[in-house]
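Hi again,

Forgot to attach this to my earlier email, sorry! This is the prediction with FE2/S2 (inorganic) cluster bound. I've pasted everything inline since the attachment limit keeps bouncing my files.
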Amino acid sequence: MPIQTEGIVLKNENIKSNYYILEIECPPIAREIRPGQFIMLKVSDDRYPLLRRPFSLYRRFSIPGKRDRIFSIIYKVVGKGTKEMTEFQKGQKIDIIGPLGNGFTPPPLPPPGNIILVGGGVGIVTLYPLTEILKDYSIYVFIGGKTEDDILCLDDFKKKSSKIYISTEDGSLGFKGTVLKLFSNIIEAKKIKNCLYIYTCGPSNMLKEFSKRLKNEDIPCQASFESRMACGFGACWGCVIKTKNSLSPYQRVCKDGPVFNLNYILWDDL
Ligand code: FES
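Structure tokens for the complex follow:
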């Protein structure tokens, strides 16, 4: 059950270009939050920005004396709200609602088999905690971004995956092009065999393209959708997407997702 509570800022640091890591001590949420779930964070007490912002889990920490008390998020400064977050100070109390949404589930089939993670931009952060629940699998990771500055969690994945593929749209790091183009190249070259499952997260145009790309592949895919959210817990219906559910086609990203089976989504022109 989500709760509204206070967390204490332990660290708020710039990690690269306009990306920051925020570590929060908040036992009730740190104990419960699962990969793919998110929190709504009140970014300011001012009238504007009024709304909370959604952030997905990056890591949970167990440090001596503070077991299951701390979790972290990575955020990108994109507007006034996230700019104000950069001012959070160590020891400051912040208002959080969470854990929210339905997270990822492990593949129904046991190992052996390979898992592919495909993340675009800050979406790769949402996929990182999956490594907690996929310990028995070989994990192949695709990380994409516009430039080298947008490639996140590289060192984290180096410790947890069998192989990492990187793409940037400007060619500043790795393959030049989109992460989906790189994914297609590797799959077509049969460099990853016996893939049981794919997990992905990124902007909706990327997920739509991915859906198109996977149409003829027999590989199930769970996708975490990024959406603008007002309430974050299902009350305002401001985050709906259309699905193949004939009884209730419109579903809320915040409450019914943010993780959906990708082939369950109904794209208008696909
Ligand atoms: Fe209000 Fe999803 S953000 S219902």
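The longest helix spans residues 204-214. The mean pLDDT is 91.

That should be everything now.

G.
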